[in-house]
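Hey, resending since the last one bounced:
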Amino acid sequence: MVERWRKPIEVLNIEQSDEIVVGRDGRIQRAVNLELAPESIERLREGYACLKCFEPFEQAWPARCPVCGAPIARDQRLFFAREYAGVVPAPQRLSVDEEVELMFELIAREEEEKRKR
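The structure tokens again:
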């Protein structure tokens, strides 16, 4: 059985962001928005995992991440405060029938607008 602290950070969804990130070496990358499980967010906030590489820690707030070298004890609280967007409501998902109905409503509105011109 795997120890509880070794449980990986659970990523629920990944979406591309409109932001661009320039690394120290000059590499340009597109940022991403991650949706994490609530338990994983708490582990990151409490210093039990690295925000940079998601490595879990047995003890909270080590001086550095043993995998990527990020300064956990010194910088992770500030990094979390800067990067965490809070709980963002998920977009409402429509059924196929609701989407078809919405499509017909939009077409009817567009036709009505054309007739008014």
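The mean pLDDT is 89.

Sorry for the duplicate.
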